[in-house]
Amino acid sequence: MMSETNVQLVDWQVLKRFSQAVFEKLGVPQEDAELTADTLVMANLRGVDSHGVIRLKVYSQRIKGGGVSITAPIDIVQETPASALMDGGARLGQVVAVKAIELAMAKAKEVGAGVVAVRNGSHLGACAYFPMLALEEDMVGVTLSNSLATMVAWGGLERVLGNNPFAVAIPAGEERPIVLDMACGTVAWGKVFVAAQKGESIPGDWVLDKEGDPTTDPQRAWEGGFMLPFGQHKGYGISLVVNILTGLLSGGSVSTEIVDMYSDLARPQDVCYLMGALDIARFVPLEQFKSRMDELIRTMRGSKKREGVERIYVPGEKEFLEEEKRRKEGIPLPVAQIAEFKKMAQELDLEAPF
Amino acid sequence: MMSETNVQLVDWQVLKRFSQAVFEKLGVPQEDAELTADTLVMANLRGVDSHGVIRLKVYSQRIKGGGVSITAPIDIVQETPASALMDGGARLGQVVAVKAIELAMAKAKEVGAGVVAVRNGSHLGACAYFPMLALEEDMVGVTLSNSLATMVAWGGLERVLGNNPFAVAIPAGEERPIVLDMACGTVAWGKVFVAAQKGESIPGDWVLDKEGDPTTDPQRAWEGGFMLPFGQHKGYGISLVVNILTGLLSGGSVSTEIVDMYSDLARPQDVCYLMGALDIARFVPLEQFKSRMDELIRTMRGSKKREGVERIYVPGEKEFLEEEKRRKEGIPLPVAQIAEFKKMAQELDLEAPF
């Protein structure tokens, strides 16, 4: 998607230090700045550029605008041995999300399973980061988040649901973990945007134009069109359930109430999450589970392929491979992105390490 | 799908009593017989005929064949305050599944959340029945089940995954609950079969023929073809995760190991489940949750519709409407089905109430 002339490879550590320095300059406590920088750069490393350092600018703007707080307390409103309700204090979404999954993990460590509902969070970036923290404790991690309404109900022509993301991370033995991370739309809007820029057509089941007709013209989709849920009514149902288990179970906002990250910098977004953790060893012996995971992954990968298919992947595998590559070779950043960072650095009186 | 001449309307209570009597004649304890009969007839009432009394015959054959036990203990292998591992003793799937969701609910009542992994279960019919039991306790109920491998990995051409079902039930206030119940394939094989019988074509993204080519000919699909996951790689990922959280977390079988219900009547299937329950009041005040559920449901239903769409439904709504209708008017059964029941009645020395 990017020609070699308009991208530049940047070392992930350079990018992480810069991102962290930006947050620290804006008053974010060092630990939170480092964590948030890490989540953004991890998204880039894993090839999920739409949720990587590209967000640094809007996060900065929201901190300056007041929509994101850097010091408000993150409260546990109520809790039981296996559950909790957390108020994220409109802090950076990544900071809130890590606290929440860690609380779910602590509960799972004590009583086998933990579930934490979170309200008053902000955009949390790529979902996979949070359940992947559970892998280190040999747990299954689960993260659901709601998001701004950009999608229709099945049969509808009005934005009433978010392209809500969810992720599940499950440890394996010799194989890499399985990390499922997806959203409820047929595709990311970013793909429609890229096709429009390149003048290419898109498959007819991705989006509706503003009149409600399916369209293969990304430009028509972009101008007031609607994202369709993946798997038709099935993705609609899943998106609605995610919206409920996040926004309603936490007493926070649902998709139609969430504040747009870009257009209103002063008001907290009230994005809501649900975090879950299961301690595998409380169910079955850990080594048995892990070796059977390896076996199952190999069954998928080794199964007969369709003609023209080079390799069968399990969820998260492509991202692990991309991460290995990018850790070595660097993260490809558009030169326009680097120019933006240089400008940000100047404004914040920071050294731009590019 | 059925002409009026080859169906007969049967009162649900008549059908339930007959189903229960069949199970009791086969030695199933009265309570279990009644419960299993109830789950089958509920599926018919809700319009899910593929998982209703049509299964009475094969369940009976499996009890007679030894693949389903009527007396083996259902054991809690290990448990913590929020989690448990259960061995279903190869009993009727519905009996095992109810015990498991009830255990998850009891744990949620105590500590906010409960998760129960189950191995050595049997086919459990329509998934929705079990999480819907949580509605009575104002809880969110979740049920996942794995199933016999009939589906490909994404890019694959070999049956390595089940059309694994999962269901979530969430209570509302004045509105009916939301009950999401789906499986991971694009459609049920039954729909392909019906199209083949009627000589109709099917959409090109449902199935592959045995060579791995997409086909609109249901007959080609039926002859050694493969079900595709819903939402392409997304449904593949979800099916794989369901397979892990059921078969591996319980230490039971994964899809490729599960015994075919129809072809091997003597061997336990080892279908595995995961049951979850969340006690809503431990997160937010119950009345607030319920009134916001009503509001959200009305937002979906009241949102602008695409041309030609008469009504927007929320998950489970169509089934509630069908249930109301069928409770009054009766359950439409094919006459061939009724003939089969009469034959079963004769063999078991039961009175056929049709």
Topology:
The structure is a homodimer of 354-residue chains.
Chain A: E1 7-10, H1 12-25, H2 30-45, H3 56-65, E2 75-79, E3 83-87, H4 93-111, E4 113-121, H5 129-135, E5 139-145, E6 149-151, E7 161-162, E8 165-170, E9 178-183, H6 189-198, E10 207-208, H7 218-222, E11 226-227, H8 233-248, E12 271-279, H9 286-302, H10 317-329, E13 331-334, H11 335-347
Structure description:
The structure is a homodimer of 354-residue chains. Helix content of chain A is 40%, strand content 18%. The first copy, chain A, has helices at residues 12-25, 30-45, 56-65, 93-111, 129-135, 189-198, 218-222, 233-248, 286-302, 317-329, 335-347; strands at residues 7-10, 75-79, 83-87, 113-121, 139-145, 149-151, 161-162, 165-170, 178-183, 207-208, 226-227, 271-279, 331-334. In chain A, the strands form four sheets. Chain A has a seven-stranded mixed sheet, sandwiched between helices. The model of chain A has no long low-confidence stretch (mean pLDDT 95). In chain A, helix 1 packs antiparallel against helix 2. By secondary structure, chain A is of the alpha+beta class. At the A-B interface, helix 4, strand 4, strand 9, helix 8 and helix 9 of A face helix 4, strand 4, strand 9, helix 8 and helix 9 of B.
Notable features of this structure?
13 strands, 18% strand, globular, homodimer, 11 helices
